[in-house]
Specification:
Elements (H helix, E strand, L loop, with lengths): L18 E6 L5 E6 L10 E6 L3
């Protein structure tokens, strides 16, 4: 997360693996992102949907 002016950078995922391409739903209730976590050691990238809570 980051403000429009580039300030207040905040990490929202905490994984040692690849987490990228975050997108919020239009209503701001969900965060969707891609990750290599839970892939059993393969090169698979999975899509995750997280309910956003402030």
């Amino acid at each position: 997360m980051i403000d429009v002016d580039g300030k207040n950078l905040k990490r929202v995922t905490h994984s040692k693996t690849f987490d990228a391409f975050p997108v919020f739903s239009n209503d701001g209730k969900y965060l969707v992102f891609s990750s290599n976590r839970n892939n059993g050691g393969t090169r698979d990238t999975n899509m995750f949907i997280a309910e956003w809570q402030d």
